[in-house]
């Protein structure tokens, strides 16, 4: 029997709902820093992590550039989110239009980095979701090299392992450890139902306190 997809597990989800569920499980350090934001307000993330790690380049003028990146990107699968760990580097844009075009062809679900991107004007209007700390014109060639992929990375103190689930939107990015994904999905569904009941109660009585006493959400 096939496993349910993430869209089936999470028909309704947000970074805030996921964070609330993780709080319930005493996993209270699962959100990235607030300066990691979507390029466009319409961009949202839901997918499993495919991890890359970049470090300062060893050669300023490499004879054959981008080798680590090109090799890594041959292994990303449909539905995965490329997680580009840079140690919050501001040296260069690690994501741009051409790599986005390739990822869209492979049905990759999005990109997330604690670094910077470029080609923002071309990417902001597109459907491919990209989360980063900002933009810069610099190319990564001779500045940052991909040195590892398929290994855990840490962004803003939050460990992200291959296969962990990422939920991103205008509020931020929440990381769901793979082993608790099913339980988080159950808790999110319960919270959505409680919030719907809360809204109905407030609409009927106008009392925030009364609705909180009845449903325990706020």
Low-confidence stretches: none
CATH topology-level name of the largest domain: Glucose Oxidase, domain 1
Determine the structural class based on helices, strands and strand pairing.
Answer: alpha/beta
Helix content: 25-40%
> How far do the termini sit from each other?
38 Å
Largest sheet: 8 strands, mixed
Q: What is the radius of gyration?
A: 19 Å
Average pLDDT = 94
Strand content: 15-25%
Q: What's the total count of β strands? A: 10
Subunit structure: Homotrimer.
Family: Belongs to the class II aldolase/RraA-like family.
Enzyme class: lyase
Pfam families: RraA-like
Show the helix and strand layout:
Elements: H1 6-9, H2 15-24, E1 37-38, E2 45-56, H3 67-73, E3 80-85, H4 97-105, E4 110-113, H5 120-124, E5 130-132, E6 144-149, E7 153-155, E8 158-160, E9 165-169, E10 172-176, H6 181-205, H7 208-215
Parallel strand pairs: 2-3, 3-4, 4-5
Antiparallel strand pairs: 1-5, 2-6, 2-9, 7-8, 9-10
């Amino acid at each position: 029997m096939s496993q349910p997809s993430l869209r089936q597990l999470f028909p309704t989800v947000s970074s805030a709902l996921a964070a609330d569920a993780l709080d319930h499980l005493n996993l209270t350090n699962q959100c990235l820093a607030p300066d990691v934001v979507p390029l466009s307000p319409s961009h949202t993330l839901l997918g499993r992590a495919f991890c890359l790690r970049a470090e300062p380049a060893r050669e300023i003028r490499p004879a054959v550039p981008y080798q680590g990146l090109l090799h890594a990107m041959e292994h990303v699968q449909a539905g995965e989110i490329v997680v580009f760990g840079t140690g919050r580097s501001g040296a260069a844009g690690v994501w741009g239009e051409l790599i986005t075009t390739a990822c869209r062809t492979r049905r990759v679900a999005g990109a997330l980095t604690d670094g910077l991107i470029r080609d923002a004007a071309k990417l902001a209007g597109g459907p491919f979701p990209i989360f980063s700390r900002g933009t810069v014109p610099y190319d990564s060639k001779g500045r940052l090299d991909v040195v590892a992929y398929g290994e855990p990375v840490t962004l803003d103190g939050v460990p992200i392992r291959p296969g962990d689930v990422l939920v991103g939107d205008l509020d931020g990015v929440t990381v769901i450890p793979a082993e608790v994904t099913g339980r988080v999905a159950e808790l999110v569904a319960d919270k959505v139902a409680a919030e719907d009941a809360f809204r109905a109660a407030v609409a009927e009585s106008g009392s925030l306190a009364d609705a909180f006493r009845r449903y325990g959400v706020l």
